[in-house]
Each structure stands twice: as C-alpha cells, then as structure tokens.
Amino acid sequence: MEVRYLYSALNRIGSVSSAARASLLGHRDLLERLRGGEPPRGLPSALCKAIARLDWEAAEAADRELEARGDRILCWEDPAYPDRLRHLPDPPPALYVRGDPAPLGHPAVAVVGSRLSTVYGQNVARTLAADLVRSGCTVVSGLARGIDASAHEGSLAVRGRAAAVLGTGLDRCYPPENEPLLEAILKAGGVVLTEFPPLTPPLPRNFPQRNRILAGLSFGVLVVEATERSGSLVTARFALETGREVFAVPHNLTSRTGIGPNLLIQKGAKLVLQVSDILEELPEEARNRLKRETPPEGDYSSPGPELSPEARKVLALLRPDTASTVDELCAGSGLSVGELLPRLLELQMGGYCVELPGMRYAAKRTPTERT
C-alpha cells in the first residue's frame, strides 16, 4: 500500500486519541505490519484493537476516489506537508487538500472569532485579514459563520493567500450557506483542507481538533471577537501550548463577544489596533521572508452579478455599522416580507450584505475600506 494511504487510514480511527495515532508517525514498516494483522508489542491495546477493526481496502478505495475527483492527500512524510504542522505534539497523519497548497508555504496567521459576531467585529476581521495578505501572509480560518467568514472574505484581497480548515470531510461544507465562500477561496488560488476523511459530518467533537490545526499552521492566532466559552479561546490555548503568538482586538466592555478578546489581553495577549502590531511579533525569519516576497496584485473579493432594481433599493437602506431589521427594511423599501427576503438573499450571495443574529442585516465593507 502506498504510504499516503497508510497514513490516511489512521485518520479513520476515531476511537483513539490523536496523540496515540501520532505515535505511529514515521514508522512505515510498523504500519505495514499492523495492516497485515501483526500487532507488535509495546503499542497500547486500544490502538491495536482499533487498527484491527479498520477496513484497509475500503479506506484505500475511498482515498483513490477522492484523488480521482482532483483532491490531494498530503501525508506526514510528504515534503509538501506543512512544516509547522509536522512539529506539533499530535500532528494529523494525513491532510485532505482541495485547491493549491501553495498558501500553506507562506507565513500564516489564523484569524478567528465568534459566530455571533457584530458588524464592528466583521469589519475589523475583514480589514485586518486584507492587510495581512497584502503584507504577504496567508490568512487561515475555519469557514464558520461570523468572524471566520469575514476573515476569509478579507483574505481574498490577494490571490493565493486564503486557507480554510474544515471540521468535516472535503465533500461537506459546514455551514452550508458558506459554500459560495468556499468556492471563492478556491477560485482565488486558495486552499481548503481537513484531517477528516470524506463523509465525516460536522460533529461537535471535530471542531476542537480542527482548531488545533488552525493554530498549528500559523505563527500566531488573532482573536477578533469571542464569548467566554468560545471555540476561539480553545484555538488561542492551542497556540499558547505550542509556542505560537496570541493577538486580540479590544472590544466594548459590555459586549458579550468582547469578553474573550478582553480577557486574553488582560492575560498577556498582544493588543492589536493595526496589522503592524501583528507583523512586528512574527519571528525574524518570517519577517525577512515577507520583505522578500511581493504578493501578486488583484482583488478577488468584488461582489457578484448585476443586482435587480429591488435589491439595489434594499442595499441603499443598509449601513455597515448599523444592523437593520426586516420590518425596518420593509418600511424603507416598500416591499413586503415575501418580496424582501429573496432580495436579501440576492445581496448576501453577491457579497453585498451580511446577516446577523435575529434576522438583522448590515452592509458589508469591502477589504479596501477602513473603519
């Protein structure tokens, strides 16, 4: 069996920890023996039992099908496997990759935050992500609603600097409404990756694992907004445990999503007001590389097709710093609720507006605009 399929098979063992799987990395001969039903001495019995239950042939067939669709498997021994990820205490045995893996070779910063984000937080995430990619960095995030989506949108300001890490298999986009954003990342020369094999659903336990990949790929993690129990704080903890920098954007003291970044700053995270606050903390090697590399020109975040007259009427009512309710937009546009909702969907799909919790809507700033 080819080595990438051996390592990929380990990703399908869900009943043991990632640390247990990591103990097998670099031992190709051992994997071959395990595949042949010969459990060596010294391995944990739970790991041996889990491997004994694995259908190696079915796993290989699924991997070959994945590759036939144009996706790629990067195993731990592959030279293209991200070096920063390789040195984690528990790196994934294999990554499933769609798109160009080149962005993973650039200095990377993870930009993360709450799904329950504010207009302020989304604008900050979009602006800082755009500034990071213009500086030569790759922006990594998790394709979640809210801050993650805004960070990805900002990273489209420069071709080939966007990376999305999924908590599902490559064949599933979660949340489903971010599928157009996933396609935009790929169209702009970015990369989408996961350690979960095809058909893996968005199980809650997957996302802490996903978060360690976000931190592992990056030199630092920027938290824009986060509640007290946000998964973004889990990502920040992974960053600290593995020697990465942690950055945070200050926020309103009375805001629920400001609790996380404000607590991080209180505990020593670097306060970020502009992109230079991040860049000056990167390792010297990374800073020197950014000076040598000039990102290609071009903004890939422009809105989509021509809007209908009704959608333009609604767009004129939206503001980037104020959320409007459906009732307010109906009153201002003269449209009924049944007429308004399709126009709001048209604006969202075109990249003109964002939906906030409680069916409130705001205009979306472009990456070249500043708050």
Notes on the protein architecture:
By secondary structure, the chain is an alpha/beta fold. The protein is about 40% helix and about 15% strand. It contains 17 helices and twelve strands. The strands form two sheets. The protein has a nine-stranded mixed beta sheet with strand order 1-2-6-5-4-3-7-8-9, sandwiched between helices. The protein has a three-stranded antiparallel beta sheet with strand order 10-12-11. The protein is globular and about 75 Å long. The termini are far apart. Residues about 365-370 have low confidence and may be disordered.
Notable features of this structure?
single chain; 371 residues; alpha/beta; nine-stranded mixed β-sheet; three-stranded antiparallel β-sheet; 17 helices; 12 strands; 42% helix; globular
Secondary structure topology:
Elements: H1 3-11, H2 18-22, H3 28-35, H4 45-52, H5 56-68, E1 72-75, H6 83-86, E2 94-99, E3 108-112, H7 119-134, E4 138-141, H8 147-155, E5 162-165, H9 179-187, E6 191-194, H10 206-216, E7 220-223, H11 231-241, E8 245-248, H12 259-266, E9 270-271, H13 275-279, H14 284-292, H15 309-315, E10 324-325, H16 326-333, H17 337-350, E11 353-356, E12 360-363
Parallel strand pairs: 3-4, 3-7, 4-5, 5-6, 7-8, 8-9
Antiparallel strand pairs: 1-2, 2-6, 10-12, 11-12
